[in-house]
Amino acid sequence: MLSVKGLCAGYGALTILKGIDLGIGKGEVVGLVGANGAGKTTLVRTLAGLLPARDGEIRLGGKDITRIPPHLRSGFGLAVVLENRNLFGELTVRENLALAERAGRGRRRVFTLERIVDLFPAVGEKLYVRCDLLSGGQQQQVAIGRALLLQPDIMLMDEPSTGLAPKVVKDILDVLGRLRADGMSIILVEQNIAIASSATSRAYVMAIGRVAHEIGEGDWPRFMADEKLVSAYLGHHQGAAHQ
Ligand SMILES: Nc1ncnc2c1ncn2[C@@H]1O[C@H](COP(=O)(O)OP(=O)(O)OP(=O)(O)O)[C@@H](O)[C@H]1O
């Protein structure tokens, strides 16, 4: 579905991503974890096309999208939910969703407004409310709904749990589980490994702009139990939490 080879990117004179290799198949939910500053958001921005790749290749569904501008990548099946959610605050929920519905028109229609409301009932209750008046959790749900209306094959999500109450996080993870059951591929960037390990079947661990470690299918319990490994890659705080 998505394959990334030797991807390099950075800011000005700084090279942050130093040759990233990763792959994700259809219907997989794969984690991207790593300590603060490891380069996760830089990778998301590069995959989204918001930051140019300096070297390497991004292929989606067999097509090279490395140089495709960000607003055209949804036409290739990629939808991105950025950490700041990027909703139009002065527009209503319905209007934000309508923009995505229009952008997704060229693709096979799997997600409708009804389906989004079924996945996120709270979104249905707020359709005519301006997005800037919603809670963080509601905004996150609208942002995911908007991404789905682009009719993607793969969703890239940057820390959707940040700042949200545990109950809201659980609701969102439940929805990701339902999407995965329907064949959606998801890359979940998540700093909190308790969340990452419960929501993903395998993960890439980033450190200083590289994939430093891979947590394979079924390997989460072993990784979590290894306090040294957790501390080395994710910081002492999380390591201590899993002693
Ligand atoms: N606009 C920018 N200009 C220069 N350097 C940047 C910029 N954005 C990020 N960086 C640097 O790139 C490195 C990787 O940052 P990035 O935000 O990708 O990490 P991260 O893994 O997402 O961390 P976090 O979990 O804290 O968001 C850091 O050293 C950061 O200081």
Describe the structure.
By secondary structure, the chain is α/β, with parallel strands linked by helices. The protein has one domain (2-241): Rossmann fold (3-Layer(aba) Sandwich), CATH 3.40.50. 36% of the residues lie in helices and 25% in strands. The strands form two sheets. Strands 6-7-8-3-9-10 form a six-stranded mixed β-sheet, with helices on both faces. Strands 2-1-4-5 form a four-stranded antiparallel β-sheet, covered by helices on one side. The termini are far apart. The model has no long low-confidence stretch (mean pLDDT 92). The structure holds adenosine-5'-triphosphate (ATP). The site of adenosine-5'-triphosphate has 12 residues, from strand 2 and helix 1. Belongs to the ABC transporter superfamily. Residues 2-233 form the ABC transporter domain. This is ABC transporter ATP-binding protein. InterPro entries: AAA+_ATPase (IPR003593), ABC_transporter-like_ATP-bd (IPR003439), BCAA_Transport_ATP-bd_LivF (IPR052156), P-loop_NTPase (IPR027417). Keywords: Amino-acid transport, ATP-binding, Nucleotide-binding, Transport.
